[in-house]
Design a protein that fits this description.
Elements lengths: L14 E4 L5 E6 L5 H9 L3 H8 L8 H8 L6 E8 L2 E11 L12 E8 L8 H15 L4 E6 L4 H8 L5 E6 L2 E7 L4 H23 L3 E5 L7 H12 L5 E5 L7 E2 L2 E4 L11 E4 L6 H11 L3 E4 L9 H16 L3 E3 L5 E4 L6 E4 L8 E8 L2 H13 L4 E6 L8 H10 L5 E6 L5 H12 L4 E5 L17 H10 L3 E3 L2 H13 L7 E6 L2 H13 L3 E2 L3 E2 L6 H13 L5 E6 L9 H14 L5 E5 L3 H7 L59 E2 L2 H20 L14 H11 L8 E2 L2 H9 L8 E3 L3 H11 L3 E5 L13 E5 L2 H15 L2 H4 L1 E5 L5 E10 L3 E8 L2 H6 L2 E5 L4 H9 L18 H17 L3 E11 L4 E3 L2 E5 L17
Parallel strand pairs: 5-6, 9-10, 9-13, 10-12, 13-14, 14-15, 18-19, 18-20, 20-21, 21-22, 23-24, 23-25, 23-26, 26-27, 27-28
Antiparallel strand pairs: 1-2, 2-3, 3-4, 4-5, 6-8, 7-8, 11-12, 16-17, 16-19, 29-39, 30-33, 31-32, 31-33, 34-35, 34-37, 35-36, 37-38, 37-39
Helix pairs in contact: 6-11, 8-9, 10-14, 11-12, 12-13, 14-19, 15-19, 16-17, 17-18, 22-23, 26-27
């Protein structure tokens, strides 16, 4: 008998999943305690569904059936249930069978599988989610194939099997369809799984951002407090759905002009979204009321959770469990709120006073409410609108990953801006960000690089430089500050991507032009000589100069610098119009303006639609998918508010050739250049990644042999991490075509001589003691020993200088062709997964942190980029007249190591140091390999939400 409290209960199989319609369910093993739930579930299933499951009328389960379906050994017989609250909504089970189709035990590797889903929940993707999870369980238990018998009329279940992406066989036998599925994940099954994940998670966010009705729970009668503020913002922001106020002590029908109720249950209409603004100790009661009423999602503004310490973190975990038990999703707790500017929605369920930001093309996500306020304020000052805004607070449930899933397919969002304190699941984030960045920019400012003691935001063990490199690999634009986040977002939202790094600079100040030129060089751009129009330049001079710069095939972008006129007679509205007219005639290249103390020019350039004070929401204009998009349409005129301090965008007035053109303006050259440089780098990434790189196949790889060797090495290891012996490490690497140059021990000088004779002179003598390993700078290595006399003299010097042979552990190794010494590593981060690293060997590279990183599995493009992205890469390519080394051989080594750690999650760490790369070929002189039992779930496992 197994219950959820028994040691044999596989708790790691429990998982929360997002279903096709955006709701959630919990998948868990069925136990003996579930007999009553199973009977109740079966009673709610239609006779037709029962017939499809048992191939005959089967109105009720017998006691024997109930016992069979609730008693499992979790090895040969497994049952899983999808639940909402305490109720089953679907079940799946497998029974291991032998070649004759009868019950069997291991090593039999086939199982019969069957599903049953409650009719009310069919079409929500329950069976597909159950199939993913039961498949993962089966693989863990050594089962490689599923067999299923399905009636031909049961087309829905046949589709579940055929759409999963596994290799399968199908036949018609004795009146039923016989299906056999190979459970080994394939590229197709992984693509199907991730596509389902994207649709489900995007739909769950869409339900939160586009509700048909909203209830605010915790609206004070006095009109003060958080709840009342959100209610007013919803009301005054033009929410297009039904709005309700909830206060248990209300005595009137209205609060702030909104229908008021004492409890959520008193509302006789559906409520899609509930905003909870009550003290933390009362939140569970409010959540329960929402769950009973059928609310789809929650925004919890209440504080007192993970941000307040250990007790608050426990309260937060319980909140997530309670919310998900009702199939809901949660933004928060400690959230600032959400905004959706779509005209048909008009949602401002946040603490941002109405009017909310107008319609724009930028999506904004923050984990911090304070940073959210800052970013919203900056965008409003600069006249930029939003498509949507989510400030997730403690992001106990909905995270940046979910929002990326939504923005990926959201046609209203062209640029994604994110402030993150942690990536949560870096591997998933980089995967989602890479896919999103292929169609629209993703700009990230990441705080929490150095986590203070006691801070509740969990972090990854990866250094910040590694995280930054992985984000760059995924096409993410990483910025350092929230100011840069807005600066870069403003340019990307209003300008086409530059085709290259060539920048024209023109303006009426030679000095400002030189500053801009220097800033361009510092950012790796290729600026032309600044064109000085002199301080006497008129708007017409600017117009003609900008037209010429944009029309030149020598320029990819233009930066215009402007200082005040001495006589202050030139109207700055005229200059803004001149710049817009010039851009309108050449819309394919980005333009940015650098100004100095020109408040009126900033006002003239600022898009009128972005300033607070008017509620008009313009129709969005979709840019072309190529990335070199036409400039978005003009925003309607609105009252101006001077602010010479901020970066602003430019849009035209009602008429003129430049109407509708937007030009971002910045108060410092460095800010404008940084924005342009990030756009250049992003455009280069987009073009380079237009076609996905390939993970190569090598015919000489012995994957099965490596798996057998690892199984033998770990048979008695338990949970320990093992460092392999040199022989075992060399044997494992050799199965993937990586040859480690052998060494022979030299405990005495005579042993060293015998080893050298066996290898042939010249040889190297090395110490292998841990404190001297790979430290040639400490004198523990002697090279090019051509004779026995040289070897004996070097042996005596080493032992006299550094210690006894027992302490030094000397070895002899054959000499290899001279080249560049490098280091290749792969390490496993619990959150990011396997990371491939490369750098040059030596103290200087270690001191400077000159190491590049890529996620595994690495493609051919990743490997080529990896060796070229370190600052010392010129040493590999013939620096100062030296011979270039064999970088193709180095790339192949990286790809082979990537395949090894990707194929075998048991390999948790590999260090190849040094790897000497010569003009032809390379030599791996030393290898350290660490192995451990793999985790029960990997990134190839079934869809799950983060657990708490």
């Amino acid at each position: 008998m197994t219950t959820a409290s028994d040691p044999s209960y596989p708790a790691h199989w429990e998982a929360d999943v997002v279903l096709r319609d955006g709701g959630t369910a919990r998948i868990r093993p069925i136990t003996t305690e579930d007999a009553g739930r199973l009977v109740s579930f079966y009673e709610q299933v239609s006779d037709e569904s029962k017939y499809y499951r048992f191939f005959a009328p089967y109105p009720r389960l017998s006691d024997r059936d109930v016992h069979r379906f609730t008693h499992h050994d979790y090895v040969d017989r497994v049952g899983l249930a999808a639940t909402i609250g305490e109720e089953f909504i679907g079940t799946v089970r497998y029974d291991r069978i032998g070649p004759d189709g009868r019950p069997a035990s291991a090593p039999a590797d086939e199982a019969e599988v069957a599903f049953l889903v409650q009719d009310a929940h069919q079409g929500r993707g329950v069976a597909s989610a159950l199939l993913e999870h039961i498949g993962a369980v089966a693989r863990e238990r050594g089962i490689r194939r599923f067999a299923a018998e399905v009636l031909p009329a049961n087309s829905k279940m046949i589709k579940v099997f055929t759409d999963v992406g596994y290799q399968q066989k199908r036949s018609f036998e004795e009146g039923s369809v016989h299906l056999t599925l190979d459970l080994e994940p394939t590229a197709e099954s992984l693509a199907v799984q991730r596509a389902r994940e994207q649709r489900a998670e995007a739909r769950s966010v869409q339900r939160l951002l586009a509700p048909g009705s909203v209830a605010v729970i915790g609206v004070s009668r006095s009109g003060g407090g958080v709840g009342a503020a959100v209610l007013r913002n919803l009301r005054d922001g033009g929410f297009q759905g039904h709005l309700y106020a909830v206060n248990e002590a209300v005595t009137t029908d209205l609060l702030d002009g909104v229908r008021a109720y004492r409890g959520l249950g008193d509302i006789d209409s559906p409520v899609d979204l509930a905003v909870i603004a009550v003290p933390a100790e009362r939140v569970p009661e409010a959540v329960a009321a929402c769950g009973e009423h059928g609310v789809q999602g929650l925004v919890v503004l209440s504080a007192g959770y993970g941000e307040s310490g250990a007790a608050g973190l426990d309260r937060q975990r319980e909140l997530v469990r309670q919310v998900r038990s009702y199939g809901m999703r949660l933004i928060g707790p400690n959230a600032y709120g959400v905004i959706n500017t779509a005209p048909e929605v008009g949602l401002n369920a946040s603490l941002t006073p109405a009017p909310a930001p107008v319609r724009g093309r930028i999506g904004l996500f923050t984990q911090s409410g304070a940073i959210g306020i800052s970013l919203l304020s900056a965008l409003l000052r600069r006249g930029e609108g939003l498509s949507s805004f989510v400030s997730a607070g403690n992001r106990a449930d909905v995270s940046g990953n979910d929002i990326l899933q939504y923005w990926y397919e959201d046609e209203a969002t062209d640029v994604a801006l994110m402030y993150l304190e942690t990536l949560g699941n870096p591997r998933k984030f980089t995967r989602l960000a890479r896919r999103t960045a292929a169609v629209k920019p993703v700009v990230v400012a990441k705080g929490g690089r150095h986590t203070p003691a006691g801070h509740v935001v969990p972090g990854t063990r990866l250094p910040d430089t590694t995280v930054s490199a992985l984000l760059r690999q995924a096409g993410v634009i990483r910025v350092d500050t929230v100011t840069e986040l807005v600066d870069v977002g403003l340019l990307l939202a209003s300008q086409p991507l530059p085709a290259g790094p060539r920048v024209a600079i023109l303006g009426n100040s030679e000095s400002l032009g030189v500053l801009t030129y220097d800033a361009c060089l510092a950012q790796g751009l290729r600026p032309g000589a600044p064109l000085d129009l002199t301080t006497a330049a008129t708007p017409e001079d600017f117009r003609e100069a900008l037209r010429a710069a944009l029309g030149s095939a020598e320029n990819d972008a233009v930066i215009v610098t402007v200082i005040p006129w001495v006589n202050e007679q030139e109207p700055q509205d005229d200059l803004a119009e001149a710049l817009r007219d010039a851009v309108a005639g050449h819309p394919g290249k980005p333009v940015a303006v650098v100004h100095v103390e020109l408040a009126e020019l900033v006002d003239a350039l600022s898009p009128a639609g972005g300033l607070p004070g008017a509620g008009v929401r313009p129709e969005p204009v979709r840019p072309e998918s190529s990335g070199a998009a036409p400039l978005p349409g003009a925003l309607p005129p609105r009252p101006r508010a001077s602010n010479a301090d901020g970066a602003r965008g430019a849009s035209g007035d009602a008429g003129g050739a430049g109407a509708g053109v937007r030009i971002p303006a910045y108060p410092a050259a460095e800010r404008a250049v940084r924005a342009v440089a990030e756009a250049v780098r992003y455009g280069q990434w987009r073009r380079a990644n237009a076609e996905a790189g390939q993970v190569p196949e090598y015919e000489d790889i012995d994957e099965a042999g490596a798996a057998a060797q690892l199984a033998g090495l770990l048979a008695d290891a338990g949970d320990a991490v093992l460092t392999l012996t040199e022989a075992d490490a060399a044997a494992l690497l050799a199965r993937y075509g990586i040859r480690v140059l052998p060494t022979l021990p030299a405990p005495t000088a005579d042993d060293a001589v015998r080893a050298a004779r066996a290898m042939g002179y010249p040889v190297a003598l090395k110490t292998t003691a841990p404190h001297l390993r790979h430290r040639a700078d400490l004198g523990g290595v002697r090279l090019d020993l051509a004779t026995e006399a040289d070897l004996r003299r070097s042996y005596e010097e080493l032992t006299d200088l550094l210690g006894t042979p027992g302490e030094l552990l000397p070895v002899v190794q054959a000499m290899v062709p001279r080249g560049v010494d490098t280091v290749v590593r792969s390490v496993i981060d619990p959150a990011a997964g396997a990371v491939l690293s490369f750098g040059l060997a030596g103290v200087a590279s270690e001191l400077l942190g000159d190491t590049a990183h890529r996620l595994v599995p690495a493609t051919e493009r990743d490997a080529a980029g990896l060796i070229r992205s370190i600052r010392t890469a010129p040493l590999l390519f013939g620096w100062r007249g030296s011979d270039p080394v064999d970088t193709p051989a180095l790339e192949e080594l990286l790809l082979r190591l990537s395949r090894l750690v990707d194929d075998h999650p048991e390999v948790v760490g590999v260090t190849l140091e040094p790897v000497v790369v010569a003009t032809e070929g390379l030599s791996v002189l030393s290898a350290t390999v660490r192995v451990a039992r793999p985790p029960a779930r990997t990134d190839l496992g079934p869809r799950t939400l983060p657990s708490y």
